[in-house]
What does this fold into?
Amino acid sequence: MSQDFRLNNVGMVNREKKISFKFNGKKYFGFEGDTIASALIANGVHLVGRSFKYHRPRGFFGVGVDEPYAILQLDRNNERDPNIRATEQEIFEGLEVKSVNCWPSVNFDIGAINNFLKMFFPAGFYYKTFMWPPSFWYKIYEPFIRMAAGFGQASIKHDKERYEHKYEYCDLLITGSGPSGLASAYAAAKNGARVILAEDKPRFGGSLLTSDVNIGNQTGVEWTEKIIAELKSMPNVTVKNRSQVFGYYDHNMLVMSERISDHLPKTQKYLPKQRLWYIRANEVLISSGSIERPLVFGNNDTPGVMLSSAAKEYMKVYGVLVGKKPLIFTNNDSGYETAIEFKKNRVDPIILDTRSNPSSDIITEAKSLNIEIKFSYVVVAAKGYKKVKSADIAKISDDKKELFNIENIECDCICVSGFWTPSIHLASQSGNKSKFNEKIDAFVPDKSKQQENTIGSANGIFTLEETIKDAFDKGFDVSNKLTEKNNKVSVPTVVEKKSTDHDKFWCVPLPKGKSYKRFLDFQNDVAVSDIELALREGFRSIEHVKRYTTLGMATDQGKTSNLNGLQLVSDIENKVVPQVGHTTFRPPYTPVSIGAIVGREVGKHSKPTRKSPMHSWHEKNNAVFVDAGVWLRPRYYKQGNEGLFEASKREAKNVRQNVGVCDVTTLGKIDVKGPDAAEFLNRVYTNAWLKLPVGKARYGVMLREDGIVMDDGTTTRISENHYHMTTTTAQAANVLSHLEYYLQLVWPELNVNVVSTTEQWAGAAIAGPNSRKLLMKLFPNLDVSNEGLPFMGYKEADLFGVPAKIYRISFSGELAYEINVESDNGYFMWEKIMEVGQEFQIQPYGTEALSTLRIEMGHVAGSELDGRTIPYDASLEGLVSKKKDFIGKRSLNRSAFTSTDREKLVGVVPLDKTTSIPEGSYIVKDPKAKLPNPKLGHVSASCWSVEYDNPFSLAIIKDGKNMIGQKLFAMSPLKNKTIPVEIVSSHYVDPEGKRVRS
Amino acid sequence: MLYINCPHCGLRSQNEFAYGGDATVKRPELNKEISDQEWDNFVYLRKSPRGKHLELWHHVSGCRQWIKVERDTSTHEIFKTYKANEAIE
It folds into this structure.
């Protein structure tokens, strides 16, 4: 297909390289360097989508980040990418994109019926319509809104692309490579500053690419190329294109998204798709430029109506004509530049200028080129449905209220210019309150809040000469604060033509008897009438008007619509714009892909995986693993066809009958050392620690200051001033921070040091009646008799040449020992235990059997110490010293904590001895009581007791002590179960604790 | 993201730290008889000032020291940082 709208020998695309791509299934050609927008326009395609609410035809309105219409869905590497701006996405061979918001096709869209029903879709439509009855929400309203909402569809597949994060530091970050960005970067770099210059587009230069200016006797493009080449050659400068600084956060942290492979057919092997830069800059110069404002008139959303600066950029950068019969509608001089550019390419434009008698160099030039100019003229309405075919134009009275001589003239595009709006988003995000500049009818940044300055047109400076001079000065000033090199470069001379005169007029009145839709927000279909309605309904705050009408929302965040919206509200309210104020600018400035935010922290990289030194043994022996915090622990070791239930039962039974071994490496371990260590532990734990002899372990409970149990574990006195503390797997990190807090801040006079040793030790718990016999074989030279190594005893020994520590502690309630060796020897230890233990029928057991064993013994764990229980509730009150003070003790006096009917730990057995009780069940007196049924407590942990071969649970219930023997009910509405139960002692097995001492 | 000057390590990003609350709260001495009200004030009652606030941060992914940071709660400006045992000006 020939490119009817492509100009010969104009533009910067690479004519040597032809590229084919598909749009809505049809094949088109473009050149390397084209965006989807420029390539489609070159092919005469202007209809690219349908609008959000009314499904009106949508074309191209801008040429960059401001584009409100041309949002497409892209297929790349068999992946869907929604919300692609056609004006930004460069084409590559094989690219496939399609329109959104239309069905069955963009040309014939069923949803366009909304356009004829528009009286039913006023502002606040959603709030008014989807209200009643509430039962309609789930099945009717929500699916309807979901179907109608959004631009495109996100993929539900795993994103295989790679995204990276990068942290960077610099003296000066400059956000935009237009004239002010280039000038300041150059001045700062020459003064020795470390500079990052970020440009959102593929090409550097900003407005210099399209404006007819002269800097230092060079064209804008030549000057840009020279400066960029020099900056790139300097070691203290990083120059990045396709990089959007989208967020300004606290303490001069800015975030930039770099599109590395988005413009390539495939992500390169060693490159990510996108890279997110976290930049901590000493100083920031915001040179993000300005965006042209639309003029508002009837049907101003018809494809073919676009910003005049966009039309100019399509010609000068891409060599593409947006139309062959252009109408330029302007209230300032910028429209003339576009007209002159058309004329240069042998296309005759007509200029409609809202001003009555303006004069400037550029108007004189336009006149001398014989361009037809109509002063005091406006476009009343665009005509044509899927593309502009003509326009109703009229002469407007001096007070801009009356229209005369309405006539229809033929045209195929309308290029509008309503003057310029500085992009103050980044400055605003930094905390800078903006101020209204009457001269340009727009907001500009006020006083710097962080280390930021705004330069160029983003600061409302619209002449090049002033921009260049100011930028050179600012670049020097901010860099000199940091480098103090005083190396100042000279400012080049600047020649330009345009003047900055403009007319405040921006919204064409409706002719009598006409009700054209005049759009303010093109992305959300917000028209003048919607704002008027919102104000009539009583919305006053601009933030409320925004939410009610959706003005300035969605992906373009009102880049083209905000100011006109404010203007309208202030006109109706008889206020001035600064009184109305503007809505808050929040990051991101442009949409950022979720992939880039997540970076490489996906799948296995989303959190660290910690494995014990024995992990590979467990793997080899059919362990089924479970996540325990960041650790992977064997849940059970599968034999044959066993499931979790059978395997854990077998493993637990073997511990009760013979001997089992469990990997307990994951337990938190903290070394507590120093002359005041005993005193410190005495303050940290609820029980007494001063008299614990060397070589002995003790079980301890620690509280938070509010009296709630924080953690439990055993701590062993290794030597006079050295203790080995263990914590639960889950609380290890919190306990260490807790100890450090008290040592550093509360009792700095205590001479104690704490350090985590969790990784240093591999641990194996040996439990069961045969465990002593096993220990005798493992340590033949050691006295491990009940007298030699009593319950809660500690010994150091030699395990086949490897130094080991033996703690006689028990979680299972059986005769048990815990052996620790240095991590590197963990695997060796484990193998030895399994090898030697064979004759005693040893079996490894996982966390499920471990739970079974502790539950039927009534030992508490995380499910009971759940951040809501005090020692009494978990039946740990025997460990609370009455004599000494400790962390949290004073809280235990609180009346709620001393109340006699507090919930307390009990055992629960189903009356039928067969039905397992779901964890989380409620214990109630009467299952048929009126709802809400008064709850006595809840089931915290359940198991199948291997001792009695029936289900057994732990529960924490009101007045638990006096409930033992009662027949109650366990109810689980979730599992739809009601189970008659008997309350028993939580010590279901070996209540006297004989086994651990045997 | 805040940029916090750890008095032991230098300027570090906020993601190395954990927040620790009001640094002016003083724990009642051990074994001291105090009223329920005083204890409740210590455990639960915190001011939530707008403006200057002396607060604790724990350099968990760094030197593991608790430090005191004088920060403006509305602007996030950090005026000064102190070691745990340093006198507050």
Q: What stands out?
A: The longest strand of chain A covers residues 163-175.
